Automatic annotation (TrEMBL):
GO terms for cellular component: Golgi stack. Residues 238-385, 505-633 form the AAA+ ATPase domain. It is found in: Cytoplasm. GO terms for biological process: Golgi to plasma membrane protein transport; intra-Golgi vesicle-mediated transport; SNARE complex disassembly. Its EC number is 3.6.4.6. It is an enzyme of class 3 (hydrolase). Required for vesicle-mediated transport. Catalyzes the fusion of transport vesicles within the Golgi cisternae. Is also required for transport from the endoplasmic reticulum to the Golgi stack. Seems to function as a fusion protein required for the delivery of cargo proteins to all compartments of the Golgi stack independent of vesicle origin. This is Vesicle-fusing ATPase. Binds 1 Mg(2+) ion per subunit. Its cofactor is Mg(2+). It catalyses: ATP + H2O = ADP + phosphate + H(+).
């Protein structure tokens, strides 16, 4: 590895040959007559002899010296290059970024990429080019710098190999040219179009490396609708915006960030919605204009050859609410929406921008922002299915598997099946929680000072079981007979029919009966035994002094969440309280009533989704099925007493024989609690007295 001293190229003509020059004596030592390939700093140059070069020196032009990070007079190792079999076959395709060596003009000239490619290959034939290597070429009086960004080689007897770093230019090489970032040059011709098709996406991206799983269909929609027009320019207008919406924790922000990383363009600008606002008048609108200033300047100078500028608005609902709906901000929100609309789809619209908005409240966004030409590509990022959950688990446990920290008894397929309705963030939290249980076994008070050994760490299935563990479901119900078996059988048939049917996607069932008859308990029991992954009941807080609009919004939110799951159960408990119903008057909330009627009759939006609505009480006409929950008769009360462990149930039979009406299950439980002794016997006298006080026994 001889060390040689760096010097300048003999003259300007030599500097434009992309060659290194040696003295006659040094050149003869490296090889016989003719050109010799030498390697310096990972780059390969053609070495030629020139009598003007001093012995012990290697003459390089300024571009080569910058490429190798050396100055005149510095020493550098020069080795004879021995190409591999793949490198001998030559380069099949090379992508170059074109720029001026010295940018002395604001607006560049138009250059025919096809003609430039032909001249470049003729001038630099049989020379090697390496990724990131700049090559200086003279073109019609201007010195251009072409920097190789990627290439493909053709190994002998094999197909094209991608990902190579070096190849020889030859007649078989195809060049694809594109302007460098911020370059004023405008390229025309077929070579530019091919480069645009190839280079919109980075060559080294993958979903797994990006940490995204479970969103195959969503990415398919994004590519088809947002990027197809950029890859195949069949229309003068391209998609300039998209809106990602869905529940929290499903990966909206992650997708937006990673979309910017997988595209060849400027670094994405990520803006949190509230950051746009300001206490100064007009500053919020100025902040919006600044976000688009760089894209506007480049589009003015380079036109359609501009790089792609990505602007990401997180929590966009905070600045783009419906116009005319706010009275307390002096119209600031309205003017921000107006400014954003004018930048995305105004008189001077831009084709080099991609605006991505993210929200979990799509209903709050101004309708004008979602029209064609603006953020018209709307993709719902919903909860992952079982296949998606398996992908997410694989991503978050990849490091464990790589370092042998994951026990063989952990089955990701089983975990994916057990984590129904988990969002991506919740699955990540599950993995962290299981890891913390494994840490807890290894880190104790005794060994904390000595230091726990990483090789002893192993995350096992019991760790995941602990992370998944929650309060056990209270699904037990007293089998007291009477109408209960019939009700349960009817509900089981209805649930199975809804699950299996390809035509029925919505089933609503109402339980009606006397107060305390067990309607809510039966609805909850059937929801639990249905094994539907999404089960939700209307929150009790809706009944506590909440005004009508808030109740309607929360009810709609419950049904929206249910529609995101493939199989969902919604329980509307104590409907009279939701409606503020009063028998005297009568009085009720019409706003809440209309919201309920609309939501109950609206089928699921998700393809293949099934929704079961269980309701305890009225609004009978809105439901498909009406099931009456009757109070317990005397035989049913005896069976219930036996299941509750009452040891002297037979002694109570004469008392139950004199019942004038049925006994609601809730009142029966209250009476037994008051009359039962410590040995689980029921005092007959106390039992009779309690039934009388409850109004059941005359």
């Amino acid at each position: 590895m001889p060390q040689m001293r760096v010097s300048n190229s003999p003259n300007q003509e030599c500097a434009l040959t992309n060659c290194a020059f040696l003295s006659d004596a040094d050149h003869s030592l490296l090889g016989p007559g003719g050109d010799v390939y030498v390697e310096m700093g990972g780059y390969v140059l053609t070495a030629r002899a020139d009598r003007r070069v001093e012995p012990g020196c290697v003459a390089l032009n300024s571009i080569h010296r910058g490429m190798l990070s050396v100055s005149n007079g510095a020493s550098i190792a020069v080795d004879v290059f021995s190409p591999s079999a793949a490198e001998k076959a030559g380069a099949a395709m090379v992508v170059f970024e074109v720029d001026y060596v010295l940018r002395q003009r604001e607006s560049g000239r138009e250059i025919d990429a096809g003609e430039l490619s032909k001249a470049f290959l003729a001038r630099f034939a049989l020379q090697y080019v390496t990724v990131n290597q700049p090559v200086v070429a003279e073109w019609q009086g201007d010195n251009l710098k072409l920097t190789a960004t990627s290439l493909e080689v053709i190994p002998l007897g094999q197909d094209t190999a991608k990902g190579a770093r070096r190849g020889m230019l030859g007649p078989q090489t195809q060049l694809q040219l594109r302007p460098a970032a911020q370059s004023p040059i405008k390229l025309t011709g077929a070579a530019v179009e091919e480069a645009a098709k190839t280079n919109i996406f980075r060559s080294d991206w993958s979903f797994e490396a990006m940490g995204i799983g479970g969103l195959d269909q969503e990415f398919s929609d994004i590519f088809r609708r947002a990027f197809a027009s950029r890859i195949f320019p069949v229309s003068p207008r391209v998609w300039t915006g998209m809106m990602l919406h869905g529940p929290p924790g499903t990966g909206k922000t992650l997708i937006a960030r990673q979309i910017g990383k997988m595209l060849n363009g400027k670094e994405p600008k990520v803006v949190n919605g509230p950051e746009v606002l300001s206490k100064f008048v007009g500053q919020a609108e100025e902040n919006v204009r600044k976000l688009f200033a760089e894209a506007e300047a480049e589009y003015e100078s380079r036109g359609d050859d501009s790089d792609l500028h990505i602007i990401i608005f997180d929590e966009i609902d905070s600045i783009c609410k419906q116009r005319g709906m706010q009275r307390s901000d002096a119209g600031v929100g309205d003017t921000v929406v107006n400014q954003l609309l004018s930048k995305i789809d105004g008189v001077h619209s831009l084709n080099n921008i991609l605006v991505i908005g993210m929200t979990n409240r799509l209903d709050m966004i101004d309708a004008a922002l979602l029209r064609p030409g603006r953020l018209e590509v709307q993709v719902e990022i919903s909860l992952p299915d079982e296949h998606g959950r398996h992908q997410i688990l694989s991503i978050h446990t990849a490091k464990m598997r790589e370092n042998k920290y994951l026990s063989p008894d952990v089955s990701l397929e089983e975990l994916a099946a057990e984590t129904k309705n988990f969002s991506g963030a919740e699955i990540e939290g599950l993995v962290r929680s299981a890891t913390s249980w494994a840490f807890g076994r290894e880190v104790t008070v005794e060994n904390v000072k000595k230091g726990a050994k990483a090789e002893n760490l192993l995350v096992t299935r019991p760790d995941f079981d602990r992370a998944l563990a929650g309060p056990p479901p209270c699904s037990r119900i007293l089998e007291y007979g009477g109408s209960l078996p019939r009700l349960k059988e009817t509900m089981s048939v209805l649930i199975q029919q809804l699950r299996a049917s390809s035509r029925t996607s919505l089933l609503s069932v109402v339980f009606e009966g006397a107060a305390g008859a067990g309607k809510t308990a039966l609805a909850a029991h059937m929801a639990l035994t249905s094994t539907f992954p999404f089960r939700v009941a209307t929150p009790c807080a809706l009944r506590l002094g909440v005004h009508e609009a808030a109740k309607a919004a929360q009810i709609k939110s419950v049904f929206d969440d249910a529609h995101r799951s493939e199989l969902s159960v919604v329980i509307l408990d104590d409907l009279e309280r939701l409606l503020d119903y009063a028998r005297i008057g009568p009085r009720f909330s019409n706003v809440v009533l209309q919201t309920l009627l609309t939501c109950i009759k609206q089928p699921p939006k998700k393809k293949g989704g099934k929704l079961l609505v269980l309701e305890s009480l009225e609004l009978l006409d809105a439901f498909n099925v009406k099931l009456s929950v009757e109070p317990l008769d005397a035989p049913s009360v005896l069976r219930a007493l036996g299941q509750l462990g009452v040891t002297n149930a037979a002694e109570l039979q004469p008392i139950l024989g004199s019942l004038a009406t049925g006994v609601p299950i809730k009142k029966l439980l209250l009476v037994l609690e008051m009359a039962m002794t410590a040995d689980r016997r029921v005092d007959p006298a106390r039992f009779t007295e309690t039934l009388q006080h409850a109004g059941i026994l005359g």
